[in-house]
Amino acid sequence: MNKEEASVDSIQKEKDRGQNAYYSSRPKLGGSGPSKLRQQFSRGMTYFLVVAASILFYFALLRVTNLSEGFSKIFQVLKPVVYGCVIAYLLNPIVKKADKYLAPVLEKKVKTPGRAKKTARGIGILLSLILLLVLVVTLCNMLIPELYSSIRNLVFTLPGQLNDLVDKLNTIKIDDSTTGTLIKAAIEEGTDMLQKWLRTDLLGRANEIMSNLTVGVINILNEIFNALIGIIISVYILFSKETFIRQTKKCVYAILSPRHANMVLHLTTKSNEIFGGFIIGKIIDSAIIGVLCFFGLTILNMPYAVLVSVIVGVTNVIPFFGPYIGAIPSAILIMLADPIKGLYFIIFILLLQQFDGNILGPKILGNSTGLSAFWVIVAILLGGGLFGFVGMIMGVPTFAVLYYIVQMIMNYRLERKKLPANSNFYDAMSYVDDDGKYYHSEEGEDGNEVNNNNKEKGK
User: Fold this and answer.
1) Is 379 exposed, middle or buried (0-12, 13-18, 19+ CB in 10 A)?
2) Domain boundary among 186, 218, 239
3) Can you name the residues that pair with 440 across neighbouring β-strands?
4) Which of 340, 392, 398, 441 lies at a CB distance of 3.0 to 4.6 Å from 384, suitable for a disulfide?
5) Is residue 318 helix, strand or coil?
6) Could you give the CA distance from residue 283 to residue 288 in angstroms, rounded to a whole number?
7) Do residues 226 and 86 share a domain?
8) CB-based contacts of 192: which residues, under 8 Å, 6+ apart?
9) Distance between CA atoms of 369 and 273, rounded to whole angstroms?
């Protein structure tokens, strides 16, 4: 090689180094090919990680109490962040509407598009927070005085109402037969126990009730403080939501293969559709039912109108069982004050729930979860048994996401086997032979194979 060729070669190397300067400053992950040593090392690391994970899981089971306490403490510390995420999620539809309608208007008046979008985002967040504040203040001004008055009247009138009930039970005329004697003895024993509870147990537990009330007030103040911090956090989340989404998407593609990453992102989008449609729709539906209940009880001149409306509206968030959970204690409260009005309330609440279940609910919610009534009941029982009131609400959309994942896996496996994915194809008259061909007995004695190109996904 002469000097001229060496000079050209060095110039080309410098040029290549300049073009690839960005990549040369970053570490290169992986190798050019899976050597035998690399394969053995990878297999050994897999075995090591499996054994280490098994040991950690074993010790975690031994110290499950300490772990649960640790997770509970971490959750308490991060509760403002959780509140912030929830508030941001609920306010996000308002912010999206503001971005959609305000940004084009501001872009005509502001020269820089980026500034117009930021201004529209700020206005949307401000409007959503003002709406949230107005809603909370209005509800507090309406509910707190009425709730205080209703609970105060309930506390002062409940002993008298129970005594009147005891007197009415004592005045019931019962015949002298054996059955009548047993009923009379049961009534006398029940009234004695009720009077004893009113005179001794209820008064004796007054200090315990007051201490629990004090602890409850302190907990409420702590939750209010966490909610205020959560509102501040929600502002940052709403301002930077696109950045968080991009960073999360980047991490998913960095950690997983493209196929698995796309699947994770698809499931995330579907989960957002299910949770968003269900939660926001259920809140709107329950708020409307609570307002209608208040107007109806006010027109019917029912006692405890505000208290009962709050109970009915809050419990209506729980699917299926919610109306009954709210109606039963409300009916008992009204019956203690006026039995006839209690019967009127039962009729009114049945009509209201029929309106909600057949007209209002389907209009607002539609088929947001894709679950049948049976799976809704299973989800509520499972979620409520594991996580209480929150589990009864969140159990339905969570179960809907799991149901969608299982359905997607089953449909994929059926499509690989060239079998129909629609559940309607698998009735009592259909079968699949040992060769994997689908037949339906109504199509002929020899059977005709279904055209799998026209099959549709099933549930």
Assistant:
1) buried
2) 239
3) 430
4) 392
5) coil
6) 9
7) yes
8) none
9) 9
The ranges of the chain with pLDDT < 50 are 8, 11, 15-31, 443-459
- Angle made by CA atoms 272, 264, 372, in degrees to the nearest 5: 50
Partners of 432 in beta bridges: 438
Together in a domain, 263 and 360: yes
Handedness of CA 52, 57, 58, 63 (dihedral sign): positive
Longest dimension (CA), the chain: 131
pTM for the model: 0.68
CA distance 321 to 315: 8
The string over 304-322, giving b where at least 16 C-beta atoms fall within 10 Å of a residue's C-beta and e elsewhere, is bbbbbbbbbbebbbbbbeb
The neighbour count for residue 364, using CB atoms within 10 Å, is 18
State pLDDT tens for residues 257-313. Answer: 888 889 999 999 999 888 888 888 888 888 899 889 989 999 989 888 888 888 888
Residue 365 placed within a domain: yes
Contacting residues for 455 by C-beta, under 8 A, at least 6 apart: 420, 421, 422, 425
Cα dihedral 77, 79, 85, 91 sign: negative
**pLDDT at res. 39:** 66
Rg of the chain on CA atoms, in Å: 33
pLDDT of residue 458: 43
| Matching residue, tokens 């179960």 | 399
Take residue 150 and report the two structure tokens written for it. Answer: 């209703």
